[in-house]
Write a structure and sequence with these properties.
Layout (H helix, E strand, L loop, with lengths): L12 E4 L4 E4 L4 E6 L7 E3 L10 E6 L7 E4 L6 E7 L2 E8 L8 E20 L2 H4 L4 E5 L2 E6 L2 E8 L4 E4 L2 E9 L3 E10 L10 H16 L9 H13 L1 E2 L4 E2 L22 E2 L3 H11 L2 H15 L9 E2 L10 E2 L13 E2 L10 H15 L8 H15 L18 H20 L7 H18 L1 E2 L4 E2 L14 H4 L8 H14 L35 E2 H13 L3 H12 L11 E3 L4 E3 L5 H15 L6
Helix pairs in contact: 3-14, 4-5, 4-6, 4-14, 5-6, 6-7, 6-8, 7-8, 8-9, 12-13, 12-14, 13-14
Length: 609
């Protein structure tokens, strides 16, 4: 059986229902979909293997990539069109906000002439490892394996044929004719799901998304890009809890053929402050409050047990294993399910949580009575452990170090606590203790984390490596933007970590000899190979340039970053400027948070320069 080569990462578009999401290629193939949640097993996993691992292609017979595609304005409803010698046809893909069962709807509409369309549905449960039993029931196709059941319905009814553990359909549409496919998941022990009114569902989806997008308060340049990024963040939000996943995918590689392949279908605390700030600034108070409340529930408990990430509902155990049956995206193995980094210590998360609670408080979100008690408990723990080594923001799998960014964020936790108590003297606690802690951290970072000879902060105490996270030093208020140490750090990071295109890597790379760019031995992240430029780091550079008065350079960089988006406005985690392609899990929430934040900084109502 012939296998379709995987499309470039940027060839995919996202659709979703606020509980899970699917990726649709320019060939009309759904190559990734986890049901019923973002973190469930995929029933279409061809993205990480080949067609045998599950996909659903719906396109004109013998056609390849589409002629054009686009989201309907300010929605997550995708229209994909093909032109053939016999005519033109459109496929509209969307996932309506669910009542009980998740639905994937695909509407085929004839535009011109008469076109023969082919559907190839290959369901494989549990990340492509289980072939379900297919049967007919009430004129529909039903696939069952263990706890999973999927129903395929068409309107009008289309003849289907099953062979090679695949369901095929072939039909003709003329101009003005429509054929609708609905794929519905439900637990296999339950009765059949109720049929969906697809026409009403489409109208509702368009209306709901456009009404949501209209709430965006940003009215500056590139509003379409900002709104698309906000829609993407909304699509990555797990509606029942308010948690926002880092990405809807796992194991899309940071290096083609490499081992840097991670599961991002979880919620990271490192994203909390920037995400909350973007939502609040854009006017999405309800979403911001839901994210804040998810945060409070997730981190509740012993402060010593604070994790860097949690599951969609705040689950703490996210065991990692390798899906050895999947050959990986373009041979990039292993494919990982779960994330071992959940057990790491990252001291920066204490600062990110406290900063998020402070931002929520200052923005007028409804207070939670236990929020301040939780903050004091986190601070008491941090007071005793801030001098310890950790794995840092980038979750290195090498030895623990004294990462400067982690120490700076510990300072942020102390600083925000002091400021809160100064603003509201009625808050209980020993403000003198937290002032002393703040001063101690600041003094140590400036003494041990700064290289006076090179005039730059370093990635960790005593190292020569740099880190793009150092660009956040002025943003969080650790030092003012005009401080020579800040300016020197920005220049050093830009010089040592940027490519010819002006895009930033996260930290100093290591060559094949095991020597870093700065000349010191060892690989800080404990992994072989390299990676692309990190998209959000380049947004941080634009922010830092703007803060230091170089707004024109910042805006020029922002324009270059916008050009990295794919044709429907989506960004992955990384970008390879040599190959000119996106890398890493896709679409990446952190990249889109960076876009929104930088646009607001450069062009929002409070922007200067």
């Amino acid at each position: 059986m012939s296998q379709s080569p995987r499309r470039p990462i940027e060839d995919y578009a996202l659709i979703g229902d606020h509980q899970t999401a699917a990726l649709v290629s320019r060939t009309g193939s759904v190559d990734w979909l986890c049901l019923p949640r973002f973190d469930s097993g995929a029933c279409f996993a061809a993205l990480l293997g080949d067609d045998e691992h599950g996909h659903w292609r719906l396109a004109p017979k013998d056609a390849d990539v589409c002629a054009r595609r686009a989201y309907r304005p300010d929605t997550l409803v995708l229209d994909t069109e093909w032109d053939t010698p016999d005519g033109s046809v459109r496929v509209t893909d969307f996932m309506p906000q669910r009542d009980l069962a998740p639905d994937l709807v695909r509407v085929v509409e004839g535009l011109q002439g008469e076109v023969t369309v082919r559907s190839t549905l290959r369901l494989r449960f549990d990340h492509g490892s289980i072939v379900p039993w297919m049967r007919r029931a009430d004129g529909h196709r039903v696939a069952v394996a263990g706890p999973d059941s999927v129903w395929l319905r068409t309107d009008p009814e289309v003849r289907t044929e099953g062979r090679d553990f695949t369901t095929y359909s072939e039909f003709t549409v003329a101009a003005g004719e429509r054929v609708t496919f609905v794929l519905t998941w439900h637990p296999s022990h339950e009765p059949a799901p109720k049929p969906l009114d697809t026409e009403q569902a489409l109208l509702d989806s368009v209306e709901d998304w456009q009404a949501w997008a209209a709430r965006c308060r940003y009215e500056g340049p590139h509003r379409d890009a900002v709104v698309r990024s906000l829609i993407t963040l909304k699509a990555l939000t797990y509606a029942p809890t308010g948690g926002i996943v880092a990405a809807p995918t796992t194991s899309l590689p940071e290096e083609i053929g490499g081992v840097r392949n991670w599961d991002y279908r979880y919620c990271w605390l490192r994203d909390s402050t920037l995400t909350l700030g973007a939502l609040l600034a854009a006017g999405y108070l309800e979403e911001a409050e839901a994210w804040r409340d998810w945060l409070l529930r997730a981190v509740a408990g012993d402060p010593a047990d604070l994790q860097i990430m949690y599951g969609l509902g705040g689950e703490r155990r996210l065991p990692e294993y390798e899906a050895g049956w999947l050959p990986g995206y373009e041979g990039s193995v292993p494919v990982r399910i779960g994330n071992q980094a959940v057990s790491q210590r990252q001291l920066d998360v204490y600062g990110e949580v406290v900063d998020s609670l402070t931002l929520a408080r200052r923005s007028g979100l409804a207070t939670r009575p236990h929020g301040w008690r939780l903050q004091l408990a986190l601070m008491e723990f941090l007071r005793h452990c801030w001098r310890e080594k950790d794995e840092g923001l980038w979750e290195v799998r090498g030895p623990r170090r004294h990462f400067v960014h982690s120490k700076v964020m510990a300072w942020v936790a102390a600083d925000r606590t002091v400021r809160a108590m100064e603003d509201d003297p009625a808050l209980p606690g020993d403000v003198t203790r937290w002032r002393r802690l703040r001063d101690d951290i600041h003094a140590e970072v400036c003494a041990r984390g700064y290289d006076a000879e090179r005039r730059t902060f370093t990635q960790s105490y005593g190292s020569r490596e740099l880190d793009a996270a150092l660009l956040l030093v002025p943003r969080v208020g650790f030092l003012p933007p005009d401080d020579p140490r800040v300016i020197g750090t920005i220049e050093a990071v830009r010089e040592e970590l940027s490519t010819r295109e002006g895009l930033l890597r996260r930290y100093s790379a290591v060559d094949g000899t095991g020597t870093s760019d700065s000349g010191s031995p060892g690989n800080v992240d404990g992994l072989p190979g390299g990676e692309g430029t990190f998209v959000v780091c380049s947004f941080w550079l634009a922010d830092a340039l703007h803060l230091t008065g170089r707004t024109k350079e910042a805006r020029d960089l922002f324009e270059r970053l916008l050009a990295l988006r794919n044709d429907v406005g989506l960004l992955a985690e990384e970008y390879d400027p040599v190959a000119g392609r996106q890398l890493g899990n896709f679409p990446q929430a952190f990249s889109h948070v960076g876009l929104v934040g930088t646009a607001l900084a450069l062009f929002g109502p409070d922007a200067a320069g």
